[in-house]
Amino acid sequence: MHIPSEEGYIDQVSIHCVIFGYHNKQLMVLIPKLNYKGDFWALPSGFVYQDEDTDEAARRILQDRTGLKNIYLESFKTMGKSSRNSKDFIRQLTELNPNSLDDQTKRREDEWFTRRFIGIGYYALVDINRVVAQKHEIDQSIKWYPIKAVPQMIMDHNLLVDEALESICADLDRKQLAFHLLPETFTMSEVKELYETILEKSFAANNFPKKILELNALERLEKKFTGAANKAPYLYRFPKQSNPS
Amino acid sequence: MHIPSEEGYIDQVSIHCVIFGYHNKQLMVLIPKLNYKGDFWALPSGFVYQDEDTDEAARRILQDRTGLKNIYLESFKTMGKSSRNSKDFIRQLTELNPNSLDDQTKRREDEWFTRRFIGIGYYALVDINRVVAQKHEIDQSIKWYPIKAVPQMIMDHNLLVDEALESICADLDRKQLAFHLLPETFTMSEVKELYETILEKSFAANNFPKKILELNALERLEKKFTGAANKAPYLYRFPKQSNPS
Questions:
Q1: CB distance B121 to B160 below 8 Å
Q2: Shared domain check, A142 and A213
Q3: For residue A19, what is the DSSP state?
Q4: Among A82, A143, A217, B68, fewest CB within 10 Å belongs to which?
Q5: Is the distance from CB of A157 to CB of A194 less than 8 angstroms?
Q6: Which CATH number do you get for residue A116?
Q7: Which among A50, A78, A171 is the nearest to B54, CB-wise?
Q8: Number of compact structural domains in chain A
Q9: pLDDT truncated to tens, each residue of chain A (245 aa)?
Q10: Is residue B16, in this structure, part of any structural domain at all?
Q11: Do B208 and B159 have their domain in common?
Q12: Which residue range forms the structural domain that includes residue B197?
């Protein structure tokens, strides 16, 4: 089991990343499965170095799992229940994997890793085609799951996914979030499809482009070549592909 | 100087409360001034006990300053810069108040209080008439300031006020926030005035009631007695005056 070096980290504070992508009219979440007997899934998570901003810590964890440096992210919720610890998870894990932890490791875990943690939740929005998902040494696999089929994860990680989605829906226009999920160029009907997927409602085709263009977020490019010139849709580009750290 | 007992608290995590009230068509913020030479203002703040939820810690700090038990609050932002500490503040304070700290206190401060702190920002929305503002032992005064005239506070506390207001504006309808700022009963034109104050824009008198009633947040009561029966406006009540902890 990978035990964090507790030196240099802030005690009792963790970072959890909900990484969203978009594929085949589905919103997807990137989730690793731990390489142990038993089915343990957990959000890409980590800790904060003393000399590191929490945003930087989230970026480091995200880069580690996606290979991407410039990712749009937002902290959306801080989980602060006093009962929030990983004792149940560690107990289940060691019951199923009795020889996975040596005594010294176990003692360190008991002292550091199983204390109460305040969890800072970040969501990240990526172009799924740019991601090369990275397995950690502790992972059996790392996969994209449709948001409707996210596996049961440890601790409150499923709740974090729900809260992240709620936050994205609420801020979709104001923070111009959706476009981060699309490739470099896209058509208006692709934007409409994405909006309908995220918000789970339909938009009228005649009003939708106006609504989107009023966000002043997109550049219009040349028409997409389809062979039938007069029906070709315009291509659009979203210039700001990440937020500054 | 009041030094927190570091025993029992989570290290390097602080809570900061932006308490909003509404008076005379102005949004107000409750801010204490420290009882030291020099002008030091700071948001009502504190720390989190090991066996206490962060929401409970915020409630404790809020009750301490307002006398109110059931307050609507939301955590809106967690400040995570690695440079976020109170060293500058403590230095200025001790320069202006050279004898305020004894050596032992000073050493404890250097060790605990002046480390980097991750700050969890909460906003609270109160009926200003119900608040009996409570001075702390370290306060010279505690007062309501119009949001446009908030004094320069220590650390990033002014930024927290800005972010709290932004968050409230964004979630005003979705979270039915405004009504927490009103007294037990109110008229629709009082709601309109409040909305116009918070969002800094005008609403058309003929559309506004429909918009508000569609939130399904309010109970309509009897007409307000004004002497002129046919012109009397309805009174409304917002049943949910606090959120559960």
A1: yes
A2: no
A3: E
A4: A143
A5: no
A6: 3.90.79.10
A7: A78
A8: 2
A9: 344 445 699 999 999 999 999 999 999 999 999 999 999 999 999 999 999 999 999 999 999 999 999 899 999 999 999 999 999 998 898 899 887 777 766 776 667 888 999 999 999 999 999 999 998 888 999 999 999 999 999 999 999 999 999 999 999 999 999 999 999 999 999 999 999 999 999 999 999 999 999 999 999 998 766 666 667 899 999 996 556 44
A10: yes
A11: no
A12: 185-237
Domain assignment present for A243? no
Query: What are A's interface residues with B at a Cβ cutoff of 8 A?
Result: 10-13, 48-57, 75, 77-78, 80-82, 116, 118, 120, 170-171, 174
Give the C-alpha separation, A151 to B129, whole Å.
49
> Who among B51, B75, B174 is closest to A78 (CB)?
B75
Concatenated DSSP letters of A129-166? GG------TTEEEEEEEEGGGPPPBSTTHHHHHHHHHH
Q: How far apart are CA A1 and CA A36, in angstroms?
A: 9
* Secondary structure of residue B21 in the 3-state scheme: strand
Is B82 within 8 Å of A52 when comparing Cβ atoms?
A: yes
A48·B116 Cβ contact <8 A: no
